[in-house]
Design goal:
single chain; alpha/beta; Rossmann fold; 3 domains; 31% strand
């Protein structure tokens, strides 16, 4: 495997992906993790292409006055590379990146971009997935994260981003694995979630189908939400091939006064207080006297809280729809759950409905955009986890729709990720 060298670079600004960018002596641009604008750094090159290079800071020669000491010194680059800046600096960078994403597509947002934060920088995550590191000298396991820019791993004992109950549960499961001399080759990952009360649910993904699940008997008999899942070793992803233990009752949390159930492996928001604020803001733009369609609806947290009595919820993931149907039944709601990809449910987009969309990072399917332009519903409420693809989609709609309001949300403090809400109204 080719090894790249270290190089000195003066950093200019932080770009939308979260890296700082600088120019090398030969004129090539370099994207660097772990650096701040104005700094001169030594960076180890992790990727080198003909037009650009990528790297990770190994030494800061001339530090920015904005630089602060990260909480997770060894692993912050893996999980939250913006631990090196203050929250105020982070908020400003996120607002700027939203503006730049829209300007790139020829759209100027009229109002100054606000990014909401509840000022909780750490211990906000209710879901963490750990990998494992096996030390051949001590013959023991550690929790681990992947080293950014490589396939290597960093042993860790915790992450400051997680709710404390997640870190404690991870140590407990790890101790059982070490007590029973389980080697790293048998394991994929450990997924742990918690609800707002700190109750945890965990899934251990293993590569060996004849796995000694009895090592967890003491925990599982006590009623703890824990599962061991066989995951096909030929797949790099931790997905369930077959449960090796009894399935457990899902966790639940309350949003806008409504209780939602969600499976350990299922989709649910990571930062509930900030999400609750986003729901409150969205609710102002969803008329109660009109039916609504909620695309990419997950377990129904948007449509069932703010979608009114005539909501249609469209979701592609069958496990999420199962939990959604359970939530609908428990609420005695008249909402309708639809198991389908968005582009196969276009008939639900009609002129008389408010359209709510919360797509994955790739943004809206082109067929969805075409249908919106064809039937012209009066209002589109668009929450996005990727302002770049959101701006692209809004640009495709701008001949028929205008931005009525917008607002950013810091769902993931200490990381470059930002959520952004756009309200689009039909131009009359």
């Amino acid at each position: 495997m080719k090894k790249f060298t270290k190089t000195q670079v003066k950093l200019e600004k932080i770009v939308g992906g979260g890296q700082a960018i600088g120019t090398l002596e030969d004129g090539q641009r370099m994207f660097v993790w772990g650096g701040l604008p104005g700094e001169t750094v030594i960076a180890e090159v992790t990727k080198k292409k003909s037009r650009y290079a990528e790297g990770v800071v190994t030494e800061v020669i001339d530090a920015s006055p904005e630089r602060i000491e990260p909480k997770d010194v060894e692993s912050y680059l893996s999980t939250s590379p913006w631990q090196i800046m203050s929250l105020d600096t982070e908020q400003g960078a996120k607002a700027q990146h939203i503006d730049e994403a829209f300007e790139l597509h020829g759209i100027t947002l009229d109002d100054a971009t606000e990014v909401f934060t509840d000022n909780k920088e750490y211990a906000y995550r209710n879901k963490v997935e750990y990998s494992f590191w096996f030390d051949t000298d001590t013959e023991s396991l550690s929790l681990a994260f992947f080293r950014r820019g490589t396939h290597g791993k960093i042993p860790v004992d915790r992450t400051s981003l997680a709710h404390p109950s997640i870190n404690e549960k991870a140590k407990e499961v790890l101790a059982i694995l070490n007590k029973n001399h389980i080697e790293g080759r048998a394991l994929k990952t450990l997924l742990i979630r918690c609800n707002s009360d700190g109750e945890t649910a965990w899934q251990l993904y293993v590569k060996d189908k004849p796995f000694p699940v009895k090592i967890f008997d003491e925990l599982l008999v006590s009623g703890e939400r824990g599962e061991v899942m066989y995951s096909n070793p030929r797949s790099p992803a931790s997905v369930i091939t077959a449960p090796l233990t009894k399935r457990v009752e899902p966790l639940s949390d309350t949003l806008r006064g409504i209780e939602f159930h969600y499976a350990t492996e299922g989709f649910f928001q990571i930062n509930l207080p900030v999400y609750d604020q986003a729901l409150s803001d969205m609710e102002e733009w969803v008329p109660k006297d009109k039916p609504a369609v909620d695309f990419y609806s997950g377990v129904g947290t948007i449509g069932l809280t703010i979608g009114g009595d005539q909501a249609t919820l469209v979701e592609i993931n069958e496990f999420a729809v199962h939990e959604m149907e359970r939530n609908i039944k428990k609420l005695n709601s008249s909402a309708v759950a639809v198991l389908a990809p968005s582009e196969r449910a276009l008939e639900y987009i009609t002129p008389d409905k408010t359209i709510i969309v919360d797509p994955p990072r790739a943004g809206l399917h082109t067929d969805v955009i075409d249908r919106l332009i064809e039937v012209l519903p009066e209002r589109i409420v668009y929450l996005s986890c990727n302002p770049v693809t959101q701006a692209r989609d809004v640009a495709l709609l701008k001949e028929k729709y205008a931005v009525k309001a917008h607002k950013g949300y810091n769902f993931f403090p200490r990381t470059p990720h930002t959520e952004h809400l756009v309200i689009l109204d039909l131009i009359v």
